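Re: that backbone. C-alpha cells:
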C-alpha cells in the first residue's frame, strides 16, 4: 500500500494552488472596480463595458476553476499522487551540462515519467532538443539519481503541473459528467 503524503506536503500544495487563484480574483476585482463608483455601484455610462468585463472574467474564472478542480482531484486521488522532479539529459549533457528538471504529479517516478511524456510542452521540448536524425527519446534520458519525489525551490525546475491539470480537465470534460443523469426517482424534489 502506498503511504499517504504528509500533512505538510498537502499544505504546501494547497498554498501553491491558492496563490494563482487569489491573484486571479484580485485582478478580476480590479477590472470590475474600474467600472464602479466608490460606493460600489456601476457607473451609469459604463454598463456595457462592465457587462463585457464580467463575461470575460467569468470565462477566465471558469477555465481556471476546471484546472483547479483537476489539481485538487490529483491531491486527493487514491492512490495518492504527488509532485515528482524528473531530471532529463538535454543538450550538452555529454559535455557536463546539468540535466533539465521537470515537475509533474504522479503516484511514483515511473508514473510521473509516463505523465510527463504525454504533455504537449514536453513533447515540444523533446522535438526542440533532439538533433535532426536522432530518434532517441525515452527513459534512457531520465537521470534517475537526480529524479525524486517533491520539488526544490521555485525557479530551479520547469513546473508542468498546471498544464497536466489542464490536460486532465479537458479529458474529463470531453468524457462528460462523472455522475449519471438524475432519474425521476432520484431527482431533487421528486418522489415516487
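Recovered sequence:
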Amino acid at each position: 500500500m502506498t503511504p499517504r503524503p504528509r500533512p505538510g506536503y498537502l499544505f504546501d500544495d494547497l498554498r501553491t494552488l491558492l496563490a494563482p487563484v487569489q491573484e486571479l480574483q484580485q485582478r478580476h476585482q480590479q477590472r470590475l472596480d474600474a467600472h464602479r463608483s466608490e460606493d460600489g455601484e456601476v457607473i451609469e455610462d459604463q454598463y456595457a463595458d462592465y457587462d463585457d468585463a464580467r463575461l470575460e472574467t467569468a470565462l477566465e474564472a471558469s477555465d481556471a476553476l476546471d484546472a483547479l478542480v483537476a489539481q485538487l482531484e490529483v491531491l486527493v486521488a487514491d492512490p495518492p499522487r504527488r509532485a515528482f522532479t524528473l531530471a532529463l539529459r538535454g543538450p550538452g549533457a555529454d559535455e557536463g551540462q546539468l540535466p533539465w528538471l521537470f515537475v509533474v504529479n504522479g503516484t511514483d517516478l515511473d508514473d510521473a515519467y509516463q505523465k510527463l511524456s504525454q504533455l504537449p510542452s514536453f513533447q515540444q521540448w523533446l522535438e526542440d532538443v533532439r538533433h535532426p536524425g536522432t530518434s532517441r527519446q525515452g527513459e534512457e534520458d531520465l537521470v534517475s539519481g537526480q529524479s525524486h519525489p517533491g520539488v526544490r525551490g521555485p525557479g530551479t525546475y520547469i513546473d508542468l503541473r498546471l498544464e497536466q491539470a489542464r490536460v486532465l480537465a479537458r479529458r474529463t470534460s470531453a468524457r462528460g459528467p462523472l455522475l449519471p443523469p438524475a432519474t425521476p426517482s432520484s431527482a431533487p424534489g421528486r418522489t415516487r
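Strands lie at 82-88, 100-106, 148-149, 158-159. The chain is about 45% helix and 10% strand.
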